[in-house]
Amino acid sequence: MQLIRPRSITRRAPSRSAFVALAAGLTVFAAEGSPRGEVVSFDSRYTLYREGTPYGNMLVHNPSVLLGAKPTESFGLHAGWQADVVSGASVKIRNETRGVDAVTTASVKDFRQVASGGFSLERKYVTFEAGYAYGWEHDYKSHSVDFSAKTELLQRSMELSIAYARNWDSVCDRVQSDIDPTRRRGLEKSTACFTADPTVTTRPLVLDAFQAGWTQLWSPLFATQLIYSRQVLNGFQSNPYREVNLGVSSPAQEYVPEVRDRQAVALKANLYLRPIKTALRVGVRAYRDTWDIRSFTGEVELERYVLVDALRLRLRGRYYTQGSATFYSDDYYLVPRGKYFTGDRELSTMRSWMAGARFAFGPSAGQQRWGGLLSKVELSLGGDYVSYDYSDFTIAGTPLHKTAIIVSFGASLLF
Known about the structure:
By secondary structure, the protein is mainly beta. It has one domain (14-223, 233-256, 308-414). It has no helices and 18 strands.
């Protein structure tokens, strides 16, 4: 039996994060002019995510490629592809009657692909970008468009940015014969999805997202960035496979609100520590949505060149904590929470921390290109360790604790 993977592992399409990130650092303002025309770049990445027991293993392979070109100084094109290959186990039925906390797992095999493309226009201190992405898998399809613009002011010491994205998604679901959510059954498998089979249907999900940013260079060594983002989701947001035992005749398909308004504010700072020749980056983020989930994220990075000029080492750490959705319960048979119910651990009270390191080796050919074409190569290798704690998502009365390892490889070529 196939189940949708947990949302903590990966998202259905990169566009579902709603916008292109407009990150800026110290090097943004060091450039003296627009990049020259006729530049071609190739970027490839491979990420492996492995989440261990209890509550099922999960393995995700994530390859991606991105090709960019600038036929002129003011016009650029890009196209990309990525995939998620998922295998492991996930939840099928959450909670048992008579107050005994239990889960039933089932196998997960999923293959998601996303193809994307777009263009950019650059005019002195103003840049405009637009893109489109299409994502598909057995039980989900997604169309998305995104637009962003930024301008540099005050002799390029300030950058103001704005971005908007919209998704039109289709979710496969079982045809429900009962309008009462407590008597609806979950989807058993995805083989009939997006066919003429009368036992399945598709349900829409629309996402609108907005982001505004202000990046300020206060000195040659110090810069900050303030970001506000908002997402509004409207449509089917339940996991069609997941069921929750409510103490009635049979488990019911997960049922969550159709509207979710998410808002966040983030502040980042970059400081170059000249005595030790190291860049320090710190950031905080506060989040709240209409499901009453509130979260806080704190992160720190250190990066510097080691051994040789072309080799960089980055160390990073992150801490995350959140409260549960207002309708979440660890056992709805004992503690009901109104008309909505879910078995999603990502909507429970949780916290996580991550620590990792990344090496990047990027020699430049200088004025003499390698083979007359290649001007720069960068190879990267990274690893992260993540720990998750779910204080009110229990198995046999014990709060769930999970760990995961993330390994990534990358190669970038500039022609």
